[in-house]
Design a protein that fits this description.
CATH superfamily of the largest domain: Medium-chain alcohol dehydrogenases, catalytic domain
Order of helices and strands: EEEHEEEEEHEHEHEHEHEEHHEHE
Strand content: 25-35%
Number of strands: 16
Structural class: alpha/beta
CATH architecture of the largest domain: Alpha-Beta Complex
Number of domains: 2
Number of helices: 9
Oligomer: single chain
Bound molecules: NADP nicotinamide-adenine-dinucleotide phosphate
CATH topology of the largest domain: Quinone Oxidoreductase, Chain A, domain 1
């Protein structure tokens, strides 16, 4: 049986004006697939990269990599879900800006009853990212309670989750943000120190805060604007985790600069390597469900838009007007 769904798509790369609401056909799930009806959809900065063409996918493209809803049908071989289940996902294949979609079941998890759909839609991509950053990206000298780390864009979607989770792990998180209000928000969510990187030199402040030592890990999703300063925040053998490009991609650099800065390590990470198996996706999701369920990490949804207003949501996100998470409601 074929149904129809609204889908927010792009037919060409460009600005938020490229987002249009189309009607698409949705069929039955094939082997290893499910059909899910969305109750809420998560907005992520990666949706902007896909809209602009920084990250390339075939067109026309329905955006969106995060959502929550009810499973309508499962294809052959899907054992962990059944029709009627509440579910949520972060997935590498875009398409969540829709009422209904068919997608691979691998990254779709049952959503615990205690977690509502909006929270489920807001937290999977951003929460699993905080999970792998804090729990799976290890500096060579280990990461222990009491260690300093630096987290850029700390008042954003991933940022506020990371502030709380880092505190629960006993890490001393220094957060940067683009306004004093955002800095206060990050502190209220567990950042021990914050730096307004629009008005202060964050590398100098980090050296002051750490008594000249530097941090063990820098988590940098801002990219171009923070790259150089971030390398100067690390202590010897520290780890630079580049995981985004909100200000633009990191320009090419010479590995030779890493030695004099303290034999530091650099890695570029993506969630989709970490969630490339059902078992690991579920294990990471269980870890996230545990910290959310226990209240150690609260998922803060500061913006809600109708699905058909996705354009306005993109404009807010890119203008640095949002804090915490944003959901689109079908
Ligand atoms: N690699 C991965 O696995 C992975 C997974 C998820 C997310 N990410 C990345 O993590 C970052 C956070 O994602 P999110 O969805 O939670 O977004 P977000 O943090 O809610 O929004 C991005 C934030 O980046 C900051 N920013 C700094 N310079 C900017 C600029 N020139 N333009 C726009 N924003 C700028 C802004 O905060 P301030 O105003 O405070 O500076 C803005 O609010 C993004 O870069 C995203 O691509 C990577």
């Amino acid at each position: 049986m074929t149904q129809t769904s609204r889908a927010v798509r792009i037919h060409a790369h460009g600005g938020p004006e490229q987002l249009v609401v189309d009607t698409v056909e949705v069929g039955e799930p094939g082997p290893g697939e499910v059909r899910i009806r969305h109750e809420a959809v998560g907005l992520n900065f990666i949706d902007v990269y896909q809209r602009t063409g920084l990250y390339q996918n075939p067109l026309p493209l329905t955006l969106g990599m995060e959502g929550a809803g009810v499973i309508e049908a499962v294809g052959p071989g899907v054992m962990h879900l059944k029709a009627g289940d509440r579910a949520a996902y972060a997935a590498g294949m875009p398409g969540s800006y829709s009422d209904l979609r068919v997608m691979p079941a691998m990254n779709v998890c049952q959503l615990p009853d205690a977690i509502d759909f909006e929270t489920g839609a807001a937290m999977m991509l951003k929460g699993l990212t905080a999970q792998y950053l804090l729990r799976r990206c290890r500096p060579v000298e280990g990461l222990e309670p009491g260690d300093f780390v630096l987290f850029h864009a700390a008042a954003g979607g991933v940022g506020l989750i990371a502030c709380q989770w880092a505190k629960a792990l006993g890490l001393r998180l220094i957060g940067t943000a683009g306004s004093d209000e955002k800095c206060a928000l990050a502190e209220a969510h567990g950042a021990e120190f914050t730096i307004n990187y629009r008005t202060e030199n964050f590398a100098e402040r980090v050296k002051d805060i750490t008594a000249g030592q530097g941090v063990k890990v820098v988590y940098d999703s801002v990219g171009k604007d923070t790259w150089d300063g971030s390398l100067d925040c690390l202590r010897p053998f520290g780890l630079m985790v580049s995981f985004g490009n909100a200000s633009g991609p990191v320009p090419p650099f010479a590995p030779g600069i890493l030695g004099p800065k303290g034999s530091i390590y650099v890695t570029r990470q993506t969630l989709f390597t970490h969630i490339n198996s059902r078992e690991r996706t579920q294990a990471m999701a269980n870890d996230l469900f545990q910290v959310v369920g226990s209240g150690q990490v609260q998922i803060r949804i500061d913006q809600r838009f109708a699905l058909t207003d996705a354009r306005l949501a993109h404009e807010s996100l890119e203008a640095r007007k949002t804090t915490g998470c944003t959901v689109l409601l079908p």
